[in-house]
Amino acid sequence: MDKLIITAAVCGAEVTKEHNSAVPYTVKEIGQEARLAYEAGASIIHLHVREDDGTPTQSKERFAECMAEIKRLCPDVIIQPSTGGAVGMANNERIQPLDLKPEMATLDCGTCNFGGDEIFINTENTIREFGQRMIELNIKPEVEVFDKGMIDTAIRLNKQGFIKSPMHFNFVMGVTGGISATPRDFVFMRESIPAGSTFTVSGIGKLQFPMAVMGIISGGHVRVGFEDNIYLSKGVLAKSNGELVEKVTRLANELGRDIAGPAEARVILGLGEQQ
Ligand code: KMH
Ligand code: ZN
Fold first, then answer.
1. Closest ligand relative to 85 C-alpha
2. How far is residue 25's CA from residue 267's CA, in Å, rounded to a whole number?
3. How far apart are CA 206 and CA 234, in angstroms?
């Protein structure tokens, strides 16, 4: 089994300081949270950025500032900007961080109800446009899927040449409107991706750690962080993303799975090779 790649989703676009005062907004706060996650074992930082008041933004300039700060504090970490941004953002706003040529970026492969009137919209043409741009810039997509049908979409677009093989998936499980975070659905997702693919699993809310264990024991990889969950355990708010990553490291150690550093993660994901 490969070593375990831990991704830390340190900030997200929806969670706020009202939910947990440790959610980072400023460049300094985001850098600090990335550092704590990195020191606890994360080799990838999944990055959203905010204005100082917490408003989500996809501004290229703000991403450049945050990425520079993260690189200053954790020079070898893999930075994976979001192209999902926040619900309601236009495509030309969402796609901006790709201009900074990060090693990876997210590629959301379908539309999902997020509850109430919230809809995270990703038409097939949007996915084609973002996928094509990542191929042009040699950026490895993390194919985000909120349901099994999105895996099928990714496979279709892979065959059409908009996503390269081998694909790296992120199973986001437990979002309102998406697939449930259950062992049965996890196995269904894992068995639905093409041979040779890699995957990570992001359990939402209280299912973050149960899903992390599924990732650890199945040979997959794990994402944790405030974007998906703000609690360390029942009723106990995490003081930092570092605490969430530390818990995964601890679980992996208990279960006999070693943690990959950034250099090892690059090899596992084939980063730096011509995608
Ligand atoms: N904030 C969600 C609307 C991604 O990073 O690509 C989208 C999201 C997915 O978080
Ligand atoms: Zn995200």
1. 1
2. 31
3. 8
Residue from 58, 98, 142, 144 to probe ligand 1 pocket by mutation (most atoms less than 8 Å from CB)? 144
Query: What separation in Å is there between the alpha carbon of 85 and the centre of ligand 1?
Result: 5
Q: 186, 196 in Cβ contact below 8 A?
A: no
Mean pLDDT of the 37-42 span:
98
Residue 274: predicted pLDDT: 54
- Give pLDDT, residue 32: 98
CB of 275 within 6 A of ligand 1: the answer is no
Question: How much is the mean pLDDT over the chain?
Answer: 97
Terminal-to-terminal C-alpha distance of the chain: 23
Distance CA 201, CA 189 (A): 10
Residues 239/31, Cβ–Cβ less than 8 Å: no
Q: Whose CA is nearest to atom 10 of ligand 1?
A: 84
| CB of 246 closer than 8 Å to CB of 210 | no
Pairing of strands 221-224, 6-9: parallel
Whether residue 227 has pLDDT greater than 80: yes
Three-state SS at 117: coil
SS3 125: helix
3-state secondary structure (DSSP) of residue 120? strand
